[in-house]
Amino acid sequence: MVIPWVIKRQLTFFAVFLFLIIIIVAIIVIKMTAPTCNDGKQNQDEQSVDCGGVCKPCVGEIKNLVVAWSKVFKLQDGKFDVAALIDNPNLSAGVLSLKYKFKLYDENNILVAIKDGEMFINPAESQLVFETGIDTGQRVPVRAFIELSDNIEWKRIEKEKAPLVVSKKQFSNSPFPMMSVVVDNKSSFGVKDIFVSVVLYDKNKNAVGVSSSKIDYIGGNSSKEMTFTWPEPFTEEPAGSDVIVGTNLTQ
After folding, report:
1. Taking the CB of the first residue and of the last residue of the chain, which one, N or C, has fewer CB atoms within 10 A?
2. Strand order in the sheet with 223-229
3. For 17-35, what is the mean pLDDT?
């Protein structure tokens, strides 16, 4: 029996149409069944169900932030700076917004001032928390403690650090304390919003002075010089210093 060419053409069109429908359905099914970070299964390279690997860090993997030190620094009578150094031991987890509270106490352990704030935390970095010009009136704080929020929302961070290098730091104590810092951008691309913090130490590695500022922009393969000052010379010239430079990798 010979099939008319019209019917052959219709059968061909139908076969092509059916093939396309099968392909579309197959793609939809594959997408619906592909591993994700919220499918309730441990797949991909996850270390537990829907966490670890390519997904957000597992709760059990997160290590607590470490407060290396916190201290109060006198600016003038009734005005004080307060700072704390926070270490994040997590290699790939950071915090977009961490709330903190500084509490300043006098020599009788009486609370004289409270200062709230908010900061980001990059993975595997030490970051200085710094508040300046806290008014304590007639009270003189001698100790400072920092309280970090218990409600921390960790975020997996995969951004690479900008290649920023401190190529120069020079301190002088007279006629007033001043430290010059040069930051180099080693990449061919410009870098925005660079946070720079300075910590001065005595011979026992105790912090005796702190300051912090921000560079809005450094062009590719360029440098920027900053100057940090303090109101009065230190009784004993600082024996060392650290300069902490970085950008917000959590955004």
Report:
1. N
2. 164-172, 178-185, 223-229
3. 75
Of the candidates 92, 88, 179, the residue with the CA atom closest to the CA atom of residue 128: 88
- 49-83 pLDDT, tens digit per residue, is 677 777 766 655 789 999 999 999 999 999 999 99
Yes or no: say if 163 and 185 are a contact pair by the CB < 8 Å rule: yes
Of residues 47, 51, 124, 127, the one with CA closest to residue 93: 124
Q: Tell me if 59-156 shares its fold with 164-246.
A: yes
Structural domain boundaries of the chain?
A: 1-32, 59-156, 164-246
Query: Reduced to 3 states, what is the DSSP secondary structure of residue 34?
Result: coil
User: What backbone torsions phi and psi does residue 243 show, to the nearest 5 degrees?
Assistant: -120, 120
CATH for 59-156 is: 2.60.40.3230
Query: Phi/psi of residue 62, each to 5°?
Result: -75, 130
Task: Give residues with Cβ within 8 angstroms of 224, minimum separation 6.
Answer: 182, 183, 185, 194, 215, 218
Distance CA 152, CA 97 (A): 8
HEC profile for 116-138?
EEEEEECCCCEEEEEEEEEECCC
Q: At residue 148, what are phi and psi to the nearest 5 degrees? A: -100, 145
For 7, the 3-state DSSP assignment is helix
Which whole number is the average pLDDT over 127-137? 95
The CATH class for the domain spanning 164-246 reads mainly beta
Q: Is residue 137 a contact partner of residue 106, using CB atoms and an 8 Å limit? A: no
Name the token pair of 163.
């290649």
Cis ω before 163 (30° cut-off from 0)? no
- Both tokens assigned to 102: 């500084």
What pTM, to 2 d.p., does this model score? Answer: 0.76
